[in-house]
Design the sequence.
């Protein structure tokens, strides 16, 4: 597949025009018949995937619909829960409270395993602004946690690419959330739930009010939702309340909260590596003196230390504490008898949440030049101090806080032009504000209070600090003194700890005009069309506090320079992101539906999107699609289609600057050090260079004068059928749909290799031709400062960018089976969805080996190979119950980093990569709901999620520090176990 160009654009235009002209002559010759009047009376609806209204629910592409009743019947209490169990949501995600990563309070989906940003999310067919934080520091995403379920009527999910209809991001699918309207009653719903296996109640409360009224010429609908959730931590469960005893694959080890590691003993394999707290006195008293509940602990093969029994698994956060309010209003009114209708949609969401943080930590090397080393190496005493201070020791709340405010306002008008053409004009503005706060150590104060004089860089590339051990040096809490390592910090760290903050905002102005209707009649039916014109102006602004925007101080406690130490920001060893940018887009698209025969319909669509030149080098381009519907029988639909798709460069990758630490070979500095030491470069071999830790920043290429990112481009094609095997035959209905889908995406964005950039720099330095990056560009990305006394340089600024590089392809089979029967004993229904990932591959460069993401545990492998979600329901008179099964097929083992001894079980000792025995068991849970209508107004419902309290699968590649010892990126929240809720609803 190659980039779409102007030639391809012309071919698709000609095709579309040819089909219209081909049948226009025949149409003009047709005479109107009574059948035309009959067909005009049929109700038409618009289904996600096309703006053309039609009478058939099943169309040319697979659309999964989840309505409000299904959401309740399957036991879901949030929009995110309902969508998470979609079978096509089979990709892993770096998020969730357990992960403790960059965005632990956002809720996203990863359809088809193509990434969280490659699914377009619409509300009533319109775009909204994204979550205002950089997802894992490099992407913008939609937060499903901000959509109140009280306002949702149904959710439609298109399981194919659809950029020809909707534009950018519609690569892996489209999720269209349809909000409620035309309510003519008032309903109050109260739900209270809790996990059943915790040793104390962790209650969740949800209150909903839904109100509306229909008028002669209009209506209004109003919903209000309040939600309060308590945190759910590992310490509330028997299987997670002790890090040492509960580790399932051997003897666990407490978090090493106060540790002194002898670096020479560690390097030469001398036991014990840890310096025993007992050297200072009674070890139990030494460990307990800090007031943080630390205990004397042991790690096999390493030694004794002070550990924290309340850290690790007991502190794992399965659910964030959260309180949220949301309101929604829909109003519409018809003006006179003109058929003109004015409408508005207003949404507001606000929440306060917090994610549990276990401790603040520091881990630094101390070089005591007043003492000899411990293994008679003829050097100074060198040891690492690791200290994890918990909330009790610091006397402060360490939780990360999230305050969100989001609102959306839509105003518009709609009507009918010339009796047959529906039109709508809408203006949509959405704004999302996120404020975060978390305690952290300040850089300047950390050095001045605990670390002292900088003594150079160790053999391992880490900084050496005096820790207050130098003669005459006085630090308030020097970590070179073992007594301070184990002591109660008291007030010594009060001025060292601050609050790191973000104040982020994203907004979106979206103007849309649509028109649809029938162009003319043919023998086999009307030729229908739809047109869309859009303008969108999106902006992001991510503003961290002043310390995060500063460069790290370059002097130690004595004011002496720290040569070569480039370590981020004014917060200790902390990087972040900041930046702002704006993007404008104009779009024009069209669709045509041509009934070629009574049994054959052709659908053509095309869309032109034009972007400003500052946010992408994509410019403008045309995206086409074509699909066929063939109905050889009245109850059988055969369908096939092809569409191209694209994703405009993520605004976070274009406009944000984010920092990172990495280990590299700095050959230029290595060469200069060799020449300084030896007097010449004779005998120098860069293969002998050692690694060092550097700080880099990812920026948009336009920051150093290059073109911004291009779009990711791809295509989807599919083939399938929908068969109404029984259509109300003997009170039975049975439908089966089967679809094959192939998706591919080229020019996928990948962060530039830091080592590759430095390799190119070295090539330029010695006069060779670099392999990837021209020397003039390298000079902009790698900037150095030179020590005037030695001539040795160190990296002062290291900028890497994202590049359009790799390609990805996947293929799937999707099956949907529904059955219902109406008997004297009640109505029985079954609804089941099945997905099988046939293949999933990735190629990082045109010349690299293709990686098997489905089967190779090193290249990928965490995505589910297959999945099934099915529900069996029974309704009899005023009683109804539903049992839902959620099956997720095998994933691969958690830790599998290298082909040689990097995929070995801690208990079995088996090299799973060598034996190809890397699959983890499947995972099946059940939800059960039961409801009873006591009167026409009063309903009660019981919801039970994970009915049998099934634990997620695990494997013995997990180490003791990988708590909660299952893959949280695949089974997020599964540690909660069985969850029960009681619901009361009254309508009046």
Sequence:
């Amino acid at each position: 597949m190659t980039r779409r160009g102007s030639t391809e654009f012309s071919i698709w235009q000609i095709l579309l025009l040819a089909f219209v002209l081909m049948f226009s002559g025949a149409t003009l010759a047709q005479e109107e018949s009574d059948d035309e009047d009959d067909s005009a009376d049929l109700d038409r609806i618009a289904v996600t995937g096309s703006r053309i209204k039609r009478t058939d629910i099943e169309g040319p592409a697979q659309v999964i619909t989840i309505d409000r009743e299904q959401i309740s019947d399957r036991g879901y209490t949030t929009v995110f829960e309902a969508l998470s169990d979609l079978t096509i949501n089979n990709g892993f995600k770096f998020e969730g409270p357990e992960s403790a990563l960059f965005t632990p309070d956002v809720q996203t989906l990863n359809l088809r395993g193509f990434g969280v940003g490659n699914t377009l999310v619409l509300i009533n067919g319109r775009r909204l602004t994204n979550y205002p934080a950089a997802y894992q520091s490099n992407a913008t995403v939609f937060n499903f946690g901000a959509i109140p379920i009280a306002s949702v009527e149904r959710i439609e999910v298109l399981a194919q690419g659809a950029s020809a209809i909707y534009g950018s991001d519609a690569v892996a699918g489209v999720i269209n959330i349809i909000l409620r309207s035309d309510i003519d009653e008032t309903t109050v719903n109260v739900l209270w739930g809790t996990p059943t296996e915790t040793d104390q109640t962790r209650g969740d409360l949800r209150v909903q009010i839904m109100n509306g009224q229909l008028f002669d010429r209009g209506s209004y609908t109003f919903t209000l939702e309040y939600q309060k959730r308590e945190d759910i931590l590992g310490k509330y469960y028997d299987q997670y309340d002790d890090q040492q005893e509960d580790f399932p694959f051997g003897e666990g080890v407490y978090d090493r909260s106060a540790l002194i590691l002898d670096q020479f003993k560690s390097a030469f394999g001398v036991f014990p590596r840890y310096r025993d707290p007992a050297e200072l006195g009674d070890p139990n008293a030494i460990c307990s003196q800090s007031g943080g509940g630390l205990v004397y602990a042991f790690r096999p093969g390493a030694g004794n230390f002070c550990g924290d029994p309340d850290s690790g698994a007991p502190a794992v956060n399965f659910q964030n504490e959260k309180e949220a309010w949301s309101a929604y209003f829909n109003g519409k009114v018809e003006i006179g008898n003109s058929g003109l209708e004015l409408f508005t949609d207003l949404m507001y969401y606000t929440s306060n949440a917090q994610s549990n943080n276990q401790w603040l930590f520091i881990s630094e090397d101390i070089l005591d030049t007043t003492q000899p080393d411990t293994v008679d190496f003829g050097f100074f005493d060198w040891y690492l101090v690791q200290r994890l201070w918990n909330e009790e020791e610091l006397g402060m709340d360490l939780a990360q806080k999230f305050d969100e405010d989001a609102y959306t306002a839509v105003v518009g008008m709609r009507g009918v032009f010339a009796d047959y053409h529906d039109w709508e004009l809408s203006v949509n503005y959405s704004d999302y504000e996120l404020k975060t706060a978390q305690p952290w150590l300040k850089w300047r104060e950390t050095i001045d209070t605990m670390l002292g004089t900088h003594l150079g860089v160790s053999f391992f590339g880490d900084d050496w600090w005096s820790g207050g051990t130098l003669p005459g040096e006085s630090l308030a809490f020097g970590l070179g003194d073992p007594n301070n390592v184990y002591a109660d910090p008291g007030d010594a760290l009060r001025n060292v700890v601050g609050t790191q903050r973000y104040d982020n905002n994203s907004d979106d102005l979206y103007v849309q005009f649509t028109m649809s209707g029938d162009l003319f009649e043919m023998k086999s039916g009307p030729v229908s069309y739809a047109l869309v014109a859009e303008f969108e102006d999106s902006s992001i602004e991510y503003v961290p506090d002043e310390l995060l925007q500063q460069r790290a101080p370059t002097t130690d406690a004595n004011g002496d320079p720290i040569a070569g130490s480039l370590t981020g920001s004014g917060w200790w060893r902390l990087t972040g992101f900041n930046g702002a940018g704006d993007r404008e887009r104009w779009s024009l698209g069209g669709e045509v539906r041509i009934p070629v025969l009574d049994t054959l319909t052709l659908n053509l669509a095309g869309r032109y999107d034009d972007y400003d030149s500052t946010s992408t080098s994509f410019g403008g381009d045309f995206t086409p699609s074509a699909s066929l519907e063939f109905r050889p029988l009245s109850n059988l639909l055969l369908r096939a289609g092809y569409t191209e798709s694209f994703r405009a460069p993520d605004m976070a990758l274009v406009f944000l600057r984010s920092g990172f630490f990495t280990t590299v070979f700095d050959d230029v500095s290595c060469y200069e050090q060799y020449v300084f030491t030896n007097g010449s470069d004779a005998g120098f071999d860069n293969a002998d260079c050692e690694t060092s830790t550097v700080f880099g920043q990812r920026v948009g290429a336009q920051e150093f004068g290059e073109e911004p990112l291009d779009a990711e481009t791809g295509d989807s094609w599919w083939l399938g059928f929908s068969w109404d095997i029984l259509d109300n035959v003997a009170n039975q209905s049975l439908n089966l749909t089967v679809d094959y889908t192939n998706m591919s995406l080229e020019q996928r964005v990948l962060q530039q290799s830091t080592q590759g950039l430095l390799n190119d720099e070295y090539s330029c330095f010695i006069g060779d031709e670099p392999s990837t990056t021209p020397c003039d560009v390298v000079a902009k990305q790698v900037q150095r400062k030179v020590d005037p006394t030695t001539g040795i340089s160190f990296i002062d600024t290291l900028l890497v960018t994202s590049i359009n590089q790799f390609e990805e392809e996947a293929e799937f089979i999707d099956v949907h089976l529904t059955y219902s029967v109406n008997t004297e004993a009640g109505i029985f229904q079954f609804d089941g969805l099945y997905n099988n990932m046939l293949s999933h591959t990735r190629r990082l460069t045109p010349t690299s080996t293709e990686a098997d993401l489905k089967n190779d545990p090193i290249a990928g492998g965490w995505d589910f190979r297959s999945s099934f979600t099915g529900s069996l329901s029974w309704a009899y008179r005023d009683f109804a119950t539903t049992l839902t099964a959620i099956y997720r097929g095998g994933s691969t083992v958690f830790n599998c980093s290298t082909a040689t001894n990097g995929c070995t079980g801690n208990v079995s000792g088996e090299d799973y990569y060598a034996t190809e025995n890397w699959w983890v068991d499947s995972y099946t849970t059940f939800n059960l709901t039961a409801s009873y209508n006591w009167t026409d107004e009063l309903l009660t419902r019981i919801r039970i999620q994970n009915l049998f309290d099934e634990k997620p699968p695990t494997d013995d590649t997990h180490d003791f520090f990988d708590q909660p010892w299952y893959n949280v990126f695949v089974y997020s929240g599964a540690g909660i176990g069985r969850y029960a809720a009681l619901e009361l609803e009254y309508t009046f």
